[in-house]
Amino acid sequence: MAAADSKPVPWFQLSLLFVALAAHASTMTVPFPFLPFMVKSFGYTDDASVGYYAGMLASSMFVGRTISSFPLGKVLDSYGRRPVMIWSLAGLSISMLVFGCSTSLETAIVARFATGVFSGVVMAVKV
Prior knowledge:
mainly alpha
């Protein structure tokens, strides 16, 4: 293949994908250090219950991600990558905002679960 026939590397598109994946990765790992303090702020003071509910908060995202993976695959096949990535990033942003502003354990668990449901950006990039 001649040099004139080769296409240039789309650096702008690749950088956008990198930022999207980095944003998703940060939603997975950033809350871990402060989850026990967040649970304590909800009124749970016993160390055993703080650990239990912090674990529930941490794992609820991965439960949502597991449940939504197959339906999200069908949506990806039907509508394509770009709409799924846009909706996933929008939903990810809203769910993390709700998680950060939550004042009860139930709201925080639902927001983390929604964060997992909106983790379609990973599937859209890696498919």
